[in-house]
Structures are given as C-alpha cells and as structure tokens.
Amino acid sequence: MSQEIKEKSTQIWRTVHFLFAIFFSLACFVNRNDADWYLWMPIYSVPALLCFTASIKPHLRGEVLWHAAANILFYGCLLYWLFEVFAVYMVYRSKGITNPFAFEEGRELGGLTIIVAWARISLSSTTERSSDKSSKSSIVTLLPWIMTSLAVIPLAFWSLCFIPNLGLTFEHCNSMKSC
C-alpha cells in the first residue's frame, strides 16, 4: 500500500473514531439520569475512551492494551446483547409493542448493537491484514462509511427529540428524560 493511501486511510479512520467518540460520550451523558446509570455510563465510557485514543493517536490501535480493552468490551457487550434480545422479545410478547425504541430494552439493545458493531469492525479493520490488493481499497472505502452511518444515524434520531412539537410525535422521544 502506498504511503499516500495509508495516510489517507489513517485520516479517515481518525475522523470516524472521533465521530464515534462524540456519539459514545453523548450516550454516556444521556444515561446519567437513568435508574441504571452505574451500568450504562461505563458501557459507553469505555468505547468513548478507546475512540478518543484512536482518533488522537491512531498507532495505539495496534497496541496490546488497546486490543485487549476492545476485545473485553466486544465480548462483554455481545453477551449482554444476547440477554437484551431475550428481554426485548419478552417485552414484545407481553405488551405487543411494535417499535422497539418505544421502550427502554429496545433502546438498550440498539446501543449495544452499535457498540458491538463498532468494536468488531475496529478490531478487524486494519487494512494491513488483507492480502488481496483489490479488497484493500474496498475495505478502506466501505468500512468508514458503515462506521460513520452507525454514529450519525442515532445522533440524528436524538436531535429530532429536541425539536419542539416534532419530538412529541416520535415514540423513542416520549420516555427520554430531560438532559
């Protein structure tokens, strides 16, 4: 891989990780009013810190400590994600709610999905691991777009909740506590 492409790829990933750092930090902030804040603030703080370090010093992503923290986060959140899938199914079955974001368990499942996706893609996104040159360019192009979408779409849905009168029409905004 040429030096120019490598530098461009590094800059793209720094930007993506910075967007995720903002998302995870805001998610941590929003959860400070939850009854189970002691669970969700650390769940969002760890990826926020990993993203900030990856955006400020990208070479740290190759370090053993960064990989260990990201792997622990990935597998821990994956286990909790499986539990939340069951919880969402039970709420759906008992209450017949069709929009999963209308209740707490659905929003928690969405957050865990984003964390698990971010962690898995971040851990497997080093383009040096790919031996096929044609797949290198597609990975460099595709993964940042997927990652950016994962960070920006929830931020857009949150912002809808703060538009007067419009926020009242969305079910995911009804149970949000004021920040």
Automatic annotation (TrEMBL):
Pfam assignment, any one: TMEM220
PROSITE patterns linked to this entry: PROKAR_LIPOPROTEIN
Transmembrane segments: 12-32, 38-56, 68-89, 139-160
Domain of life: Eukaryota
Keywords, sorted A to Z: Membrane, Transmembrane, Transmembrane helix
Membrane among keywords: yes
PANTHER family found in the cross-reference section: TRANSMEMBRANE PROTEIN 220
Record's protein name: Transmembrane protein 220
